[in-house]
Every structure is written in C-alpha cells, then in structure tokens.
Amino acid sequence: MSLARIFDRYPERRYIMFGGKGGLGKTTFSAATAYYLAKKGYKVLVFSVDPQASLSDIFERDIFGQGAVEIMPNLYAQEIDADRHIKEYQDEIRQKIYDMYGLDEIPEEIESYIQAAAAEPAMEESAIFDQVVDIVLSAEYDYYIYDLVPLGHALYYLSMASVYDEWIDKITKLRQEMEEYSKVASLIKREEETEEDMILKELLDIKYRINTSSGILTDKEKTAFFFVIIPEEMALLDTQKAAGLFAKYQVPLSGYVVNRVIPPELGRQNIPDYLRHRLEMQETYLKRIDELFGDQVLARIPEFERDVTGLPMIERWPRRCLAQSLKPPPPSPRRE
Ligand SMILES: Nc1ncnc2c1ncn2[C@@H]1O[C@H](COP(=O)(O)OP(=O)(O)OP(=O)(O)O)[C@@H](O)[C@H]1O
Ligand SMILES: [Mg+2]
Prior knowledge:
336 residues, alpha/beta, Rossmann fold, 8-stranded mixed beta sheet, 54% helix, binds adenosine-5'-triphosphate, binds magnesium ion
C-alpha cells in the first residue's frame, strides 16, 4: 500500500486530513498531497484552520486572509483570517437587529455586548468553524485538504460540533413546541413571518451547516484521515491515545504516514556514535510502528537536510511517497 494508491482506489474520498501531534509534518504532508493531486489534474484546495497557519511559509507566499490563492494551475491555498470573519459576523448581527426591530441605531448596551462577545476566545474558534463550513460546502474543488491543528485541537472541533448540535437540537425543539402552542392559542392564520419564525429558521440553518460539516469529517465514503507519526516513543504513545479518541468520534482512519526517518543506509557509513544511537533507537520504533499498524502504514519519509519550503522542495516530497502511481487520472470525482 502507498499513500498514492489510497487516492487512486478511493477517488470519492475528497476530504483529506493529516492529523497528529504538533510539528511532526501535518502542514508539509497537506501541501505535498495537494501538489501531487493538482499535478494529476485535479482541482485542489488546501486550507488552514490554524491561526498560526504555516501554508504561507511552505508556499513562500503571504496568503493570509486573501481567500483561495492560486499557487500553480489547479492548486489553491487558503489561510482563514478569523478576525476579519468576526468583524463580518458582528456586522451581520447589527444588520439583523436593524431589520428585526426596525431600529436606526444599535442601543449602547447591545453594542457593548456585541463588542465583548467578539473578544471571547470561543468566538475565534466558531468563526473559523463557520468559514470551514462555507469552504467545504462550496463544491468548487475536486479535493479539499484540511491543514489541521495539533491533535487535541482537532478533537476539540469535533466535540464542539456535537455539543453545538445537541444544544441547537434542544432549542429548536423548544421553539417548535412553543410555536405549535401559540398557533393553537391564537387560532389566527398568520400572514407575516414572525420574529419567532425567523429565529427558528436561523437555528435550523446553523444546525444544517454544523451537521453537514461534521458529517463530512465522519463520513468514511468521502473522507480520508491520516495520522502523521515519527519514529519516537512519545509520538507513538500520543498517537495511540489519539487514535482511540478519534475512533470515539467515528473519524474514519485511512492510514499512518511516518515522517522524519533518518536514512538507515547511513548506518553503513562511518558515522559518529551520536547518529548511530539515533539510528538504533529509530530502528526499534520503526519495528514497533510496523507491529502496531501493519499495512496501515502508507509511507516513510526521510528526514531532509533542511526545512521543506517552496515548490521545488515540495516536489521532491511526492516523488518519495506519492509518485508510485503515475497512471492517468481516473474520471473526476467532482459531481456537478
Ligand atoms: N521530513 C522532513 N525533513 C525535514 N524537515 C521537515 C520534514 N518534515 C517536516 N519538516 C519541517 O518541520 C517543520 C514542521 O513541519 P510542519 O509545519 O509540516 O508540521 P505540523 O505538524 O504542521 O506543525 P504544527 O503542529 O505546528 O502545525 C517545518 O519547518 C517543516 O519544513
Ligand atoms: Mg501545521
């Protein structure tokens, strides 16, 4: 099995995610996979949900907050600007208050509430979440590659989706019941849409968006989730723990990729003890990885002599783990 073969075999898995501990290579794998799929002729968007996004670094271009930027033919990259989205969201709320209550000006105490709410850390996360929903629902690309934040955080998004969902379920039900009662009570056929109707509609819309985006994350037909690991003890332990949690949220796992493998052939050369020890240690963990994950291990990527930045460097990456398959692309999985 190789990483490339997963894409060949399951062309309907259009949402690709690389998860794992901080700094192991999630962004690099995301960018390299995006490059590979774009070269194969698919239209690909790789996007970052990380406020400290590093797609700008790897593509050596400032793309922050600029929407989807074309990096090369078929390859688009996007870094979400949460702050701007929060501002737009505040404006939207103000507009709704104007429309619903027919006011010319937002009352001072409501304005200060809107300001205070924007400073909440949860606001940034829900702003990002909201943008992600917009992106994945856009249906403009063949592939969507999520450049994820480190483990704990990605799980937080998933749990947040299910908490939101339950909360909205409760409120929606309550409101629907209230509406039934009020209809019976008044027995008046209403012609105009009431404020209640509008709120209910809004809630149902939020619910639809949350369900659709978290539904994608847990849809094994459409989603490929890969864990990035390195041959070191702590990384392995954390990954095993995380794999358990992801399973709990029913994220479908497509496999593991091993990054930063010191080339074992170095062992045949005259090398310092320091490096020899590292190689021995690595050997132990590579074996453990194979025992633990077997044929779910899809790639081994060497430790390069420098950081992976710029397209020529990214191009070297797929040659090692993705280029096993250079067949012509199967029919586009995009459904128009
Ligand atoms: N095989 C490799 N050889 C050399 N450098 C690498 C390799 N893989 C990743 N790097 C470098 O390691 C650094 C971290 O990689 P990357 O940003 O992809 O990790 P990440 O998992 O996305 O990190 P974060 O959790 O902070 O988002 C980058 O500078 C990258 O260029
Ligand atoms: Mg990253």
